[in-house]
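Researcher: I'm preparing a figure for a lab meeting and need a structural model of a single chain. I don't have an experimental structure, so a prediction will have to do for now. The sequence is pasted below. Please return the structure as tokens so I can convert it later.
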Amino acid sequence: MPSLIPNRRLSPQQINQDIEALNGLGAIPFYTTNRVEATPESLQAAYQRMVTQQQNEVEKQATARAAADSARLAEWQFHQAVLAMKEVVRGQFGSDSNEAQSIGLKKKSNRKRPTRTKVAAIAS
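Model: Understood. Here is the structure written out token by token.
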């Protein structure tokens, strides 16, 4: 018997089987039960509640995706603005200025110059 603790999602296959069972219940004319949660009315109400919550979930997922897209666009716009500001500082104050260093750029004079590597002599 599967776990009755609802801490994981049911598979779509299991949900489809449950829906088919609910639809098949209509073919049983004299179905009666003393269990409140198993009455046809209660089953229909639970089904409608499930469909409503699934629709709500899809709407919220779409809203979350839209919010993520909006945030991603805002992040890129901010990044482009910062890059433009860095170009302006470099152009206005120069690459070797303290102002360039204060915005996170490395001073040109602090860069390490490349060194030549000696090529080993080929012995013949």
